[in-house]
Amino acid sequence: MSDSRTLRALVLGCSLKPGPQESSSDLLGRQVLDALADHDVDGELIRVADQNIKFGVSTDEGGGDGWPAVREKLLAADILVIATPIWLGQPSSVAKMVLERLDAELSETDSRGRPSMYDKVAAVVVVGNEDGAHHVIAEVIQALNDVGFTIPAAASAYWVGEALGKVDYKDAGPKPDTTGESVKSLASTVSHLARALTENPYPAE
């Protein structure tokens, strides 16, 4: 491809736990960043619980809201990855708060008058000790698409332990033939589509 610039990814870790506690969803998110690095993608992971993000549906809720700083990083990124645990078969409340804040992008436009999240690619990774990974992925992917993100093939990866089990992903050991392969596929398709959109952006209406 003619555009060989390094792409930028932002992973939002949606654990309920603040740092520096260990987080399985953060671990999987960092594994995605490692896989993306093989495709000339730089990036960072932000643990949302540490950012003082307020509830709301605007780009800035005021009063020291941490979302505007996160949003600036998102606007500078080509790729967004939501990393969430499963709780009661649902995305975490932190992940849902992120989606609610992204709702504001429905009213935002870029310098060409297009929806602000056009030309950005999104994916989701999920961990949990119960069933529900496909449901969680479906909820998050649909919401991201609604606000303008483009979703590639194989845009998800997950690990689900035994129902009611006590072993977390961070304690389960490497899973190269299952979750690991899904992460590699995700990194390949996400980076491919993101680079394609840098070369051929969506037209302005």
Structure explained in plain terms:
With 205 residues, the protein is an alpha/beta fold. Helix content is 34%, strand content 19%. It is built from five helices and six strands, in the order βαβαββαβαβα. Strands 1, 2, 3, 4, 5 and 6 form a six-stranded mixed β-sheet that branches. Strand 1, helix 1 (24-37) and strand 2 form a beta-alpha-beta unit. The relative contact order is 0.19. The model has no long low-confidence stretch (mean pLDDT 94). InterPro entries: Flavoprotein-like_sf, FMN_Rdtase-like_dom. Residues 9-153 form the NADPH-dependent FMN reductase-like domain. Pfam families: FMN_red (PF03358). This is NAD(P)H-dependent oxidoreductase.
User: What best-fitting shape do the alpha-carbon axes yield?
Assistant: globular
Give Rg in angstroms: 16 Å
What is the H level of CATH, i.e. the homologous superfamily?
Flavodoxin domain
Q: Can you count the helices?
A: 5
What is the succession of H and E elements? EHEHEEHEHEH
Percent range for β-strand residues: 15-25%
Low-confidence stretches: none
Q: What is the CATH C level class, in words?
A: Alpha Beta
Described by strand count, sense and barrel closure, the largest sheet is: 6 strands, mixed
Task: Assign the structural class, choosing from mainly alpha, mainly beta, alpha/beta, alpha+beta, or little secondary structure.
Answer: alpha/beta
Assign the CATH architecture.
3-Layer(aba) Sandwich
Mean pLDDT over the residues: 94
Tally the structural domains.
Answer: 1
Distance N to C terminus: 26 Å
Helix content: 25-40%
Write down how many β-strands occur, each being a DSSP E stretch of 2 or more residues: 6
Briefly note the CATH topology name: Rossmann fold
